Amino acid sequence: MSALTFSLKKPLQFSVNCAALTPSKLQGKSIQEIASIPMILGNQKLTVGDLFDISGEDPHHFCFKNTSDKLEYLGANMAGGSITIEGNAGAYLGFAMADGEIYCHGHTADFTACNMAGGLLKIDGNAGHFLGGASAGLRKGMRGGTVIVKGSTGDRTGDQMRRGLILIEGNVGDYCGSRMIAGTIGVLGNAGRYAGFNMQRGTLLFTQAPHLHATLQNCGRHTLPFLSLLFKSFQQYNTKFSQLNSQRVQRFVGDIACNGNGEILLAEPLNA
To answer: For the whole prediction, is pTM greater than 0.85?
Structure first.
């Protein structure tokens, strides 16, 4: 069966909440029923059929075409199945996602994978601020799952992250891993300022020396055998991180300003 496909009819002037369009929420619905689902565009009350041309028949696999960064909350609260986005996605992609797989071929806006609890989210382009962080008013960021970013991300990546894995092949902005409780964030490119700020536990894995603040303590170089298992686990993903192989790292701990037991590991770059 071909994937259930939503092709945006025309460019959008305002943002649209697409949280209703996930495989688990549309199980058992016909194309006519899906097309009649109400949507809000600015001050207009429309339907899914007004915004998208709908085709295909596989209710477990969705595809969005002609996409726009105005399409927000794609894959929100997703509990299974897969979504492919052939273009850019708006804010809150994969919000509170629990299971399934999302593959975005373009860039994503802020709060991608925020409050994520499970599943796999892959992004070919860049992601905005607060990737894997907590949404406004909540104190728990990403709580599980895996995010792979081929490009770069903005500030506060993994803010208040509590569990899960984020791998970024490009650069990352300021305050990476801020207020982090647990989990792992890997960055192959450059990191901005204040990485690990108020970090309590968890691991930040860098291959380029970050600009660290005073309350992160340098513990020297170490050989950590567990890294061979960590790097081996990356091989299941199509990512450059699977090329890492050295167990020798520079280790920093902190943030000691908040009695943190987190760690920053500086590994050898891929071209070393």
So the answer is: yes
